[in-house]
Fold NLP/P60.
Amino acid sequence: MKQTNNIVFRYFLVVLLSISTVTGCGTFTSKLSQRPPSLLNRETDADTKAILDRLYTHYQQWQGTPYRLGGESRSGIDCSALVRTVYQSAFGVDLPRLTGVQAQLGNEIGRHELKAGDLVFFKTGKRTQHVGIYLEDRKFLHASTSVGVTISRMDNTYWRNKYWKSVRI
């Protein structure tokens, strides 16, 4: 009887260890839960301030970096790479590399619904698009072909006429 109990105990122990190992390795953490709460919930002034603080900090780090099509570094960066880099660094969110693909993400929102961190898109030519990150008061952060990484106003004549759509990630 003692030998049978010993075998059952060993069997139970092996099964228990196997289950705990398998479930320990199978932990799933969604990308959504890794995002800062302030990016998911922008309802309070504190949430908006936290987002703006992160965006302005990244602007200071990238300000004046020249525009370079296909660039992804401080020696030159294009608009979609800047958006991708800022979202990754500031919010831990991975975005695709290309503007056209970024425009297909999230939920489209109206210009009057913009909040800090939303993406704003412009059609700058027949087949060219531009993207930036909305800040506040009709201002957005982007990599301009003429002045590099900068902040522009959406209501200036050029950008107002090129506005295409806005997306909330």
In short: The radius of gyration is 23 Å. Helices lie at 2-25, 31-34, 37-40, 45-62, 79-91, 99-102, 157-162. Confidence is low (pLDDT under 50) at residues 11-38.
